[in-house]
Amino acid sequence: MILTTEKGIRNTVEEAIENQEITDIHTHLFSPNFGDILLWDIDELLTYHYLVAEVMRWTDMDPALFWRMEEKEQAELIWQKLFVERTPVSEAARGVLTTLKEMGIDPKTKNLDTYRAEFAGRTAEAQVGAVMKQANVSNIVMTNDPFDEQERAIWLEGTRPQDAFHAVLRIDPLLNDFQNTKEKLREWGYEVQDDWNGGTIKEVNRFLEDWIEIMNPLYMAVSLPPSFAYPEESDRGRVIRDCILPVTKKHNIPFALMIGVKKRVNPDLIDAGDFVGKADIRALENLLAENQENKFLVTMLSRENQHELAVLARKFRHLMIFGCWWFMNNPVIVNEVTRMRLELLNTSFIPQHSDARVLEQVVYKWRHTKTVLKDVLTEKYEDVRSTGWPVAKEDIQKDIAAMFHENFWNFLEKDYRK
Ligand code: RAT
Ligand code: ZN
User: Fold this and answer.
1) Fewest Cβ atoms closer than 10 Å to its Cβ: which of 195, 204, 231, 258?
2) What domain of life does the UniProt record list for this protein's source (predicted)?
3) How large is the average pLDDT for residues 278-304?
């Protein structure tokens, strides 16, 4: 059906966005059968590290004291400072309200216990179903860390994710702290030597192969500092060159790089103490140019890197850009960056992921993104329609399906139904 008015375009975009199932390609959630490492409920929502960073601006409490408090007390402090004493206008604070509202809990009272009572009667399993239905998310991609003792034990016991949950092998310690990681690998029976030689490479690769076998990951992922360089004669450079690239290529899985995080500039704040820095995109340019048979999924944390990243994707089709990561996930930036990506790449990118650490965050992250995308896409289709080009309802539906779901699976060359 050809759309003949701006109103028709808007209604079609809105409806297509609402009806489109989503693959959430990067989260920190877990299949509910993994047990209590899946975080959910109101106290978890309030103690999200994005909100910890914000509360610290309104209290002179020693952070060490904050971390010694029970989670319930931390949530109460955050509620008091950010929701009771002030209006929760920040993106992360507003997100809590959007989540409540969309989950059918009217956020009309400032009494936290009312919300606690609402969550008390729920189970993780039921909440997973409710969240996925509400956000129309059909596939959740996890972040799975074989270096995390608790998670590692779950996998080694034989637990495997439910169908809607997909694994990702996350390897930060291997690339960002090889000296200590080497000790771990030895403890686990991998004969990694002090020298970087054929034997060491074989053993690191054996570790990766073992975890690919266990997790069946959709991709391998790392977060990297703004100083990331490639090629580089360093532990990181060598592990990427001799292990990550050949192993991901062999298994035909992308290597996901999340570039631009400066870890712990304020160590007292733990997860809330990470910062952003502009990276040198030449590292990625080199990786892409030298490894045309590998696949790269990339997101960058600094606003200053977004333009060159989008231009780079015009040069290399084995680069798939994804999401507005972490400090980029604010409506003003999502609007600007998505617009720019559409202008440079058409719909050949993945506009968003939720990065949810707490289950219910999926609801607000997608609601806020959908609101921005409705405006951006309406404007883009209207620009096309106003030239006289016939824009059909089906064209819009197809584009939105690509961005929210299919680009990812096509890039992987995988069918999402396992
Ligand atoms: O957005 C976040 O929650 C960050 O703390 C990180 O988890 C980041 O997304 C990452 O995956 O490293
Ligand atoms: Zn993340």
Assistant:
1) 195
2) Bacteria
3) 98
- Check whether 251 has a pLDDT greater than 60: yes
Mean pLDDT across 376-382: 98
Q: What integer best gives the mean pLDDT of the chain?
A: 98
Q: Is 357 in the pocket of ligand 1 (CB under 6 A)?
A: yes
| Residue of minimum CA distance from atom 6 in ligand 1 | 326
The ipTM estimated for the assembled molecules is: 0.98
DSSP letter for each residue of 66-123 = HHHS-HHHHHHHHIIIIIISS---SHHHHHHHHHHHHTT-------HHHHHHHHHT--
pLDDT score of 189? 98
Q: List the CATH code of the domain at 42-121.
A: 1.10.2020.10
Written as six digits, the tokens of 351 are 């506009």
Ligand 1 near 271 CB (within 6 A): yes
Q: Output helix, strand, coil percentages for the chain, rounded to the nearest 5.
A: 55, 10, 35
Pocket test for ligand 1, best of 265, 355, 358, 359 (most atoms within 8 A of CB): 355
Cβ of 326 below 6 Å from ligand 1: yes
Q: Is the pLDDT of residue 164 over 70?
A: yes
pLDDT of residue 417: 64
Question: What share of the chain has pLDDT > 90, as a percent?
Answer: 99
Torsion of CA 101, 363, 98, 58, to 10 degrees: 130
Distances, alpha carbon 10 to alpha carbons 269, 373, 401, in Å: 43, 11, 16
Top mutation candidate among 54, 143, 219, 223 for ligand 1, by most atoms within 8 Å of CB: 223
| CATH architecture, domain defined by 6-39+144-412 | Alpha-Beta Barrel (3.20)
Q: How far is the CA of 9 from the centre of ligand 2 (A)?
A: 34
- Measure 361 CA to ligand 1 centroid, in angstroms: 13
Q: Does 183 sit in the ligand 1 pocket, CB within 6 Å?
A: no
Atom of ligand 1 nearest to the CA of 326: 1
Q: CB of 295 within 8 A of CB of 82?
A: no
